[in-house]
Amino acid sequence: MSIAPTPLDILRFLAERGEATVLVTLVAVHGSASRAVGTQMAVAAGGESCGSFSGGCIEAAVIAEALDVLSGGVGRTVRFGAGSPYIDVKLPCGGGIDLLFTPRPDGAVVNAVLAGLTGRTSVSVSISSDAFQHASGAGFALTYFPRLRVVAL
To answer: What is the mean pLDDT of residues 63-89?
Structure first.
């Protein structure tokens, strides 16, 4: 597990592992949290993951939830931290986060976003419990931006 990957790392993880993956997106923060809305994590069928929401406090529970979503084929949003059904899983900051679990994100869209970022253009997507698609769809809107690059002359 990589604790601070870039969005490019998350997308590459999804592309390399194919259909047997779950994309997890932080869609709301209640109180304090160590990550911002839009932060993502990817989980593969074997339990491998890329990304983090808390630096290790909830990742095992997130992976377990993602594997359950993958086996059932139906995405969902789950609260972790304050107000969560996981009463034994706490965030160190005391807040709560809502995570959207999207099983089997569309590989063509993942590859299109990768191509855009590699070509240094921003790409907007829409993410829901059942779709990872170009920005025309309903759901959580997210724009991926290429990594900042400084050119000194």
So the answer is: 87
